[in-house]
């Protein structure tokens, strides 16, 4: 009997080592999936109580502009969290908490604090803070250690500015080193935001994947000081963690905002497979979701903000054309292209095909220029740089060697 027990122990040790190697290789440990919900972690046999309280990701900035900015970060245990901010590093005289729901302030691990009513063009300094919740009883809450981040800063973009400048990355596909590499090709340029046009991941596995393959590379590169805007690609709709994915971002779906001379419209194009495809087992409804967005888009192109903008740029992962015959791509053409033409949009930015290309306007199809970014492999990766003034939009696409592989200029009609 002792021999059997020892053999079992040895087998378990080998299995554990194999699991560790798998995690280190791919960064996708199955156990990390339960980090969002401590009760699920305990049910899965993952006890994190012996770990020291720490910040595991962030801070990182997101915004839809409009004189507000959201600061996000993640702790390894539940906490009461806030942001201290002010006009200088020595004057963090204001304090903000996450949004209350039904009178209850947040007390979890994923923190999102939005600073509102910011002054246009002003620079702010900020510091994140989290106080560990060690025990949460009905009439007694026990706090533990309080952690604070370093003092960081950002400039609140003036939405009435004369020009806007940003870069687009797309189709990274779980290659986190591509983020700093591509952004390094734009080093020294002053950008208002970074736009991720989908498929940063292959599929959604767990929290650690999101942290290791996006949040840490972004935070290390720019995101403590410059916000990013993000829309899902079709690969972000896949995997067992896809329904938890949006919790880690202030906004990932369709939206619209005005910045400088541009009205930005972002569409979430969903999956490129049929809703009835066996891999989805009947639990998705992307056709209806795209139709809902088409109704929203029709309202948007009729809005005053859209019509009065000098330029209108649409950003969507699956292009409204030139992306094959898969169901989702065809549906995007059917429901979005007529509205984009009707709205006389000036530029569409996409990804998805893994083949960078500049498509000029076509009177029989897209009445607007369509820029499609590259793919995930070396030699196909791209960073697209866009600058817009009241007179024109200039687009320059670089491959991962820094060579310009596409350009386009849109002048005011």
List its salient traits.
Immunoglobulin-like; globular; alpha+beta; disordered N terminus; six-stranded mixed β-sheet; Purple Acid Phosphatase, chain A, domain 2; 2 domains; 31% strand; 413 residues
Morphology: globular
Q: Span from first to last CA? A: 85 Å
Q: Radius of gyration, rounded?
A: 23 Å
Determine the mean pLDDT.
Answer: 90
The total strand number stands at 20
Structural class designation: alpha+beta
Number of helices: 7
Give a written overview of the molecule.
The protein is of the alpha+beta class and 413 residues long. The chain folds into 2 domains: 55-155, Immunoglobulin-like (Sandwich), CATH 2.60.40; 164-411, Metallo-dependent phosphatases (Purple Acid Phosphatase, chain A, domain 2, 4-Layer Sandwich). Helix content is 22%, strand content 31%. It is built from 7 helices and 20 strands. The chain has helices spanning 2-26, 38-43, 178-184, 207-223, 286-301, 304-308, 327-342, and strands spanning 55-62, 69-75, 79-86, 94-97, 110-115, 123-137, 140-148, 152-155, 164-169, 193-197, 228-231, 255-259, 262-267, 311-316, 347-350, 357-359, 370-372, 382-388, 392-399, 404-411. The strands form 4 sheets. A 6-stranded mixed beta sheet has the order 11-10-9-18-19-20. It has a 6-stranded mixed beta sheet with strand order 12-13-14-15-17-16, with helices on one face. Helix 5 (286-301) packs parallel to helix 7 (327-342). Residues 1-47 have low confidence and may be disordered.
